[in-house]
Amino acid sequence: MISVYSISALLGAYLFGSIPTAVWIGQAFYGIDVREYGSGNAGATNTFRVLGKKAGITVMLIDITKGWTATNLAALIGLSVTGPHNSVQFVNYQLALGIAAVMGHLFPVFAGFRGGKGVATLFGMILAVHFQAAMLCVLIFLIFLSMFKYISL
User: Fold this and answer.
1) Separation in Å, CA 121 to CA 41, 85, 87, 101, 124
2) 119-129 vs 131-148: helix axis angle to the nearest 10?
3) Could you give the CA distance from residue 83 to residue 85 in angstroms, rounded to a whole number?
4) Contact 20, 27 (CB under 8 A)
5) Between 119-129 and 44-51, two packed helices, what is the crossing angle to 10 degrees?
6) pTM higher than 0.85, yes or no?
7) Mean pLDDT of the 30-53 span
8) φ/ψ of residue 19, rounded to 5
9) Which of 3, 55, 69, 72 has a CA 20 to 30 Å removed from the CA of 10?
10) Half-sphere exposure of residue 14, counting CA atoms within 13 Å on the CB side?
């Protein structure tokens, strides 16, 4: 049975993921909405393209942190709900919280439900759940980047 506690955690993870990092950094430091330029996306890649390396790296790191933090919320509050950290139920709870954060990034309540593609936030979730899988993702990304010299989808 889903408890009020679990629903509150999922809502919190969604709201945390909804923080529109690219939009807020663009508006606060550059006076623009990154969604009006480049690919029209509120993510790290478009921020690199539109605002430059410093803003792009900042957005990417914050977006990764959103996914990692929301997923690890399970470790902070999940014990009383799911049991031991190594249980399947615990990992499922982590994944649910991470997916809620990714959905928040895709459809942010704080930015008119127009967000990014969720790649960095999803990477943060993978990093929290399985470090080796996250490093494999980085390796694959670097191979494709070196082959095609292209990041955006």
Assistant:
1) 14, 22, 24, 7, 5
2) 140
3) 7
4) no
5) 130
6) yes
7) 94
8) -65, 115
9) 55
10) 13
